[in-house]
Amino acid sequence: MPALWRSTFVLVMVLLAISRPSLASEAIGNGTEHTITTLPIVIWKWEEIHFPYLVALWILVSWLCKLVFQLNPCLTRVIPESGLLICIGWVLGGIIYGADKVQTFRLQPFTFFFYLLPQIVLDAGYSMPNKLFFGNLGAILVYAVIGTCWNAATLGLALWGCWLGGAMGNIDTGLLQLLLFGSLIAAVDPVAVIAVFEEVHVNEVLYILVFGESLLNDGVTVVLFNVFDAFVSLGGAQIDAVEIIKGIISFFVVAVGGSLVGVVFALLISLLTRCTKNIQIIEPGFIFVLGYLSYLTAEMLSLSAILSCTFCGVCCQKYINANMDERSVSTVRSTMKVFANGSETIIFVFLGISAIDPSIWVWNTAFILLTLLFIFVFRFIGVFLLTWILNQYRLVPLDFIDQLVMGYGGLRGAVAYGLVLLLDENKYKEKKLMISTTLIVVYFTVMLQGITMKPLVTWLKVKRAAVSERTLAEKIQNRTFDHMLVAIEDISGQIGDNYMRDKWNNFEEKWLYWLLMTPIARKSCDPIFNIFHKLNIKDATSYVKEGERRGSLAFVHNESKADVDFNKKFGADFSEMMPYIMTENMGPDHVPVSSILRDSVPSVCLDMHEQDLKMRESEDFDAHHLLQQHLYKGRKQHRHGYSRKHLEVNKDEHEVQEIFQRTMRSRLESFKSAKMGVAPPKKISKHLKKDQPQKMPNGKSTDNSKSHAYGDEDLEFSEGDSASGCEAAGGSFPMRAYRGAGIVNPAFMAEMDTMDPMPPMQQIPSWLAEAEVDSSNMVPSQRAQLRLPWTPSNLRRLAPLCLSTHSNDSFLLADSPATQEGISELPPPPPPQDGEGQGTHK
Amino acid sequence: MGASQSARTEHEFQDLADRTGFSLEQIGNLDKRFRQLSKNEETLSRQDLTSISALDNNPLRAQIINAFFDKRNLRQNEAGTVQVIGFEEFLMVMSHFRPAAMHITEEEREKLRREKLRFVFNMHDTDSDGTITLEEYRRAVEELLSKAGTIGQETAKAIADAAMLEVASTTMGKMEPDEFYEGITFENFLQILKTFDIETRMHVRFLNMDTATMRCGK
């Protein structure tokens, strides 16, 4: 096999040399022959750069084709994109041929196997749905290995039979050559299959079976190809039992060895990403380089490169996604897609272009038609046969329709074409016939089967993929099911799939996580936690967006009323519905709280509206003070504008330090004032003034509507989070938790506290509150958020902060409504303190 | 609750097979296991199940074991728990995890799905009042995540809250301001899991399953 590859290499080098020599010779020529007589201002240097220039142009052209198709959605709905690209290839090829009278551009096998294919395979592996893949690995392997061998063998034998029967006329071939041809064309092509199946959205089991099969059988087909190629070189006479056994052994060694190389590289990548924290910019680069190296290494060892690259991607995805920074992960993802999609486009365009070359076409109707027929028929027979066997063992049998689609989805593609180009024309007299047949087969399957696939899927009513984003509740249930099944297997005393999976999971958690993941990643890699994290970020985003939409000023101004209103309403629901939780959590404080909360007086907020305008001026003044006291000077200016090493904008330690110190100071002061029951120092009272204007109208309003006896308590609540009130009131509980969290994480705490003295900024935003009033335009989830019983322990929603290093801010934002609910539900201080607390405020 | 003698008769097996849908071989296997667990007693107690060492690391151990002694899973329309179960009850609980027969109608499939989900629902609904309240859900989630190690109890609680919110928002749609979401009812439960592929998620391959499917498939 090395010999084959070496010869391939030489072949390719020769081919490359054909296009390159001009470059080299010109470059030399320029240096020696052209003696300059005068200094040229500009010179035309086409000869020197024409090679990379053409490559870049080709890429540009093929991508532009894609762009054109995407502008015509009605076209892509009927014909799959791969088919359209081939058509474009024909057109382009026609143009070139018309201009040059010879086909200048061809898809070279070397280019295909070393520059175009690896990224497609790596991407397929990297974005493979892992659980699904390993869950169906048995079936996939059966289809990929046995199915491919079946296809190759039956096609070869059938063609041989027809050849012996004289159906093909006079062609120079033999059993081994036909078997070789069968093996190279046996494999379902991942590129074509993914391109079609991704558009039709079949159910996930069917998808993974076809996809996994197509990916793995490429490896198998290359191995088969090499074995048969060696056999042909040996010649029929020398092949005895020993050689055949060797062939079978080499088949398994190559396939398994390739996969192992992939796994080793996956381990390497995972280990490497453990320690790339400080070079985040090139962190994603490692994935690509090592992925490519896994391909090359396997090739070098004459193992299956495709399998190696696939398994590398499959195995490392989980760990690198956990290890790397979120930004790097998204970089890897999108770059991978750019490469894979880009080279896929190029491949299809070139498949089209290659056809427009009379020199490769040799027509033999019988050979071509028989090949088409046999491929189609034997694919179906193979699928039905194997599925029948598999269904005896499968928990969920594949039904007939799925099998039909699987059989029909046997698209052949570029790998077959790449392999057939590798054939040595001296050994294979009918190489041209094989090339043209391969091209016909590829066109036929990609175009015809591709076009009819979608109508077929609709017509047969194939189970489609359920369109659902995984919700948190679903994830939790999923996990429950997992553990439940294991438990049932344990109880019923058998060792089944679930048992094995559980054992593997335990092993993975215990050893692999420890080995391959950074300690921080280990914490956040749990899928349930992940989705929770995402949910929080989504909340935060919508919160910020909504706030911005309303305008930040409105935010500030409407706050106070919002908060009063919210507390009351909320409190009422809360105490009615969840009395037992309240008792449980609040202990002795229970009685005052619920009695107060139960009274809801909507008029308060309505009156507030009138006062709004008057308040504005003084608020502006106060806000100014607040800003002065709590904003720090930005120090971004000291940083360089451009850095190749860093992406971060500002992580200035001084800044964080400053915030921290300031907030600590103010907290200390407010704490003192609350604890001693003395008036807060001047500085604090200044910004406490902030509350005064609110208080006034509030007080008035309660006066107006005399019916409400607890107006003051409500007020107390709204101030609940100005630090003094809070400490005084809730010295015993939730606040504690939150303070504690803050000290663990100064940065977070600082921000929290910067806002602390500014009730408006952190209270329930106006949009939430208004929805309370007019209850029309609120997102359901937010609505639900208001309705759910929030216990004071909701503060613990902050807990993830200690866990997650990512985006503290987002968490903070997401949580602040909840937090505030929690805080504002604090019971009013017990009577004696109550007087004191209010005294300090008034 | 079988006859008094220790060896069950062929006839009894056939009877159980008709009622629970297991094949005779499977019942034979499960019978062996039952004896092993109950130490050749007629009935199985909680202790017997708790002593299975393989279950030690399962976060749902308590819930699963409770499910075996839950009257709701054993008989219709009854709540509460029993102290010991016989072989028939053991089989009845097990049969929730039996894969469906190859050819059944859509309605039967739906019914089966409901039954299976009802089992899970009952597992969460510890006070059998028909709703999973926030408290119950929290406890379930905490238990579920307790063995994960990396997720603390506080976070688990927050996750339960978030999931509950999610359920509330997906099942109730817009709620009136004074409405209150009491908990997940069974209908809600069905709704949130409607895309869930129960066929693959709640099936265990019982021994000798292969021959059984072969017989009904062919």
How does the helix and strand content of chain B classify structurally?
Answer: mainly alpha
Strand content of chain B: under 5%
The total of beta strands of chain A comes to 0
> Could you list the spans of chain A in which at least 5 consecutive residues all have pLDDT below 50?
1-5, 7-32, 553-613, 678-842
Count of individual helical segments of chain B:
12
Helix and strand composition category of chain A: mainly alpha
Characterize the largest beta sheet of chain A: strand count, sense, and whether it forms a barrel. none
In which range does the helix fraction of chain A lie?
over 70%
Label the overall shape of chain A: globular
Low-confidence stretches of chain B: 1-6, 209-218
Q: Regarding quaternary structure, how should these chains be classified?
A: heterodimer
| Strand content bin of chain A | under 5%
The dominant shape of chain B is globular
Strands, helices and their partners?
The complex is a heterodimer of chains A (842) and B (218).
Chain A: H1 2-19, H2 21-33, H3 46-71, H4 73-78, H5 81-100, H6 109-126, H7 130-135, H8 137-164, H9 175-186, H10 190-200, H11 204-234, H12 241-274, H13 283-300, H14 305-323, H15 326-355, H16 365-391, H17 400-408, H18 414-421, H19 431-459, H20 472-492, H21 497-516, H22 519-524, H23 527-550, H24 552-557, H25 559-577, H26 579-586, H27 590-598, H28 603-630, H29 653-676, H30 682-688, H31 691-704, H32 711-718, H33 723-730, H34 735-744, H35 746-755, H36 759-762, H37 766-774, H38 780-787, H39 800-803, H40 808-824, H41 831-841
Helix pairs in contact in A: 2-3, 3-5, 3-15, 5-15, 5-19, 6-13, 6-14, 6-15, 6-18, 8-9, 8-11, 8-16, 9-11, 9-18, 10-11, 10-19, 11-12, 11-14, 12-13, 12-14, 13-14, 13-15, 16-17, 16-19, 18-19, 23-40, 25-27, 25-28, 25-32, 25-37, 28-31, 29-33, 29-35, 33-41, 34-35
Chain B: H1 10-20, H2 24-38, E1 44-45, H3 46-50, H4 61-68, H5 71-74, E2 84-85, H6 87-94, H7 106-124, E3 131-133, H8 134-146, H9 153-172, E4 183-185, H10 186-192, H11 198-201, H12 209-217
Antiparallel strand pairs in B: 1-2, 3-4
Helix pairs in contact in B: 4-7, 8-9
